[in-house]
Amino acid sequence: MSVDGWNTVLVLGGIRSGKSEFAESLVTDAPVVRYVATAPEGDPEDTEWATRLAAHRARRPGSWTTEETTEDPRRLADVLESAEPNEMVLVDDLGGWVTVLLDPDHQPADDVATIAELAEAIRGCAARVVLVSPEVGLSLVPTTPLGRAFTDALGAANRAVADACDAVVLVVAGQPVWLKPAAAAIGPVAPATAPTSAVPAAATAPVVASLADAEPTPEVQLPDVLTHTPPAAAPPEPGNAWAAPTMALPMVATGLVIQPGMELPMPDEYAGPQAVDRLATLDVPGAGLGVLDRVVGFAATTQGTSTPAAWGSVRVLLLHGDHAGGASAGTVAGESARRAAQARAGQGALARLAAESGASLQVVDTPASAPIEDQPALAPDQVESALRYGWRLAEQAADAGVQLLVLGACGAGTEAAAAAVLAATAGAEPPAVLGRVITDSGEIDDAAWMVRCAAVRDALHRTRRSSRGAKDILAELGGGDVAVATGVLLGATARRVPVLLDGPVGLAAGMVSRDLAGQARHWCLLADHGGHPAVRLAADVLGLTPLLDLRLDLGEGANALVALPLLRSVLALSAALPVHPSLGGGDDTDPGADEPESTDPSYADPDPTEPDFAEPDSTEPDFVEPEPAGPGPASTGADEQPASGWRAG
Fold it and tell me: Which of 45, 81, 556, 595 is catalytic?
């Protein structure tokens, strides 16, 4: 599935249409398959039904594991939530699941809520999922109340699941017709090393042809990379596809439209589990890396190797854009601009942490957003330009050899905009995801918090009949910084560059990106939720488990940079440690046995009566004053020039 750019698929079809056989063909080559059977056993005297069930069981390979959900339909969501990234889950079928759901033994039950829980579980599932369901919407309306209840519930379930899945296929007379994404050539699972393309040639050719005579999109002027640029990375070795271009034609240069259902690459589904299994063989005195083994698994999947290297070249993208109206209540006018200027000058927490980590820092000005309670935050053409601009930022980073992007933001009203996006995409209540407003003096401003809640409430009321498509949400609620961040996530996914998220803006962009390319969330890592309620909820929906719980509040981007050295250390350690001697590694139990004697005549064994340390010279200072992180008064060149602002593409 990952080769063809989708992670979850719904297979629809009529009776005896071949939908189950087609779904099984999609998972044939998967190494680990968990089959979820939903149909009840039925009447023991119904031999025809028993024959159908037996035929299904006979087709399953012996290596598959089978689970039953007939006792509790809510358990299906639990199975999906507990699935591991290396698993393939095949659910056959939703018709049986709805039958059990409507059974009087399971009533009273909230059918709508249970279906909604299933859809959310599919969106957050870490494994690959294939679901089979009968399509009964083309038949006559049943004449019995029970029949109508079944068709209505199944229709609602199919709609909710289809919306949650990356792809939908309708099997008619054994012939698959792909409904989502339209006209996509999607096939069965292939090995992760197979060559991939972000956009199949068949899908790309007509788009390019239709735009052949169109006026080319002007190239967006990118801000300068200002401070602390590490040495240029070496060119990728032959055969190494890490951060290699994934599209035959660059998206921005050709004018291709960023649209829902894009097929972007997935990480290597085999490398991650192999890397985690390898950790258990290393020569460590304790139990290992604990929860930080997820860092190794993530780096392995995104680098395509079971021995991932620590990220060398890291770039921080700081998105600066303000939101007008009630969303920015309680903020000091001009404060976000001061923070952005401070970062450009190499000063402040973010710049100093970037310098400490050897990361480059790029400040990006995004378009200002209008008051969402009164009008759309952005015009549709601004959304298109912002998405392309963010994509281009990721392209530029990949071309420069960047191996990890850190996404942060500074702007008035960003938390309220993120809360509005979460309310529209995840059904969240704004007060539950809006963090408290803290003044410069450290006091809690409840009045400003209520103004922000009211602004989000009014914006949701204003857009209650609007479409909930990705671009519509960005235009109505998200604004410039969320739109650019969404473009960055999509562009980084296309170029196989992982992204370290930090704060509400990046997580809101992750929620929006699901509709455009569901693969983007698999290239994202969340180091710490920072205690922010919006980040907590979005991470839960996206299936991003925070690695740490430090509760830092240094500003978006800075929190992630605090954790970056730890993550790098874990990767470096996992790559350098040998295999334990009991498992075939080298024997280091007597390191001095084979150690040659020193031939240096000046060397002498230390006197055992003397202490093995020397008192420090009291005349020397205990520390060295570090050089300032930013450019000094005598600096010249690009650092003295202001970064280019955002321009519509």
Answer: 556
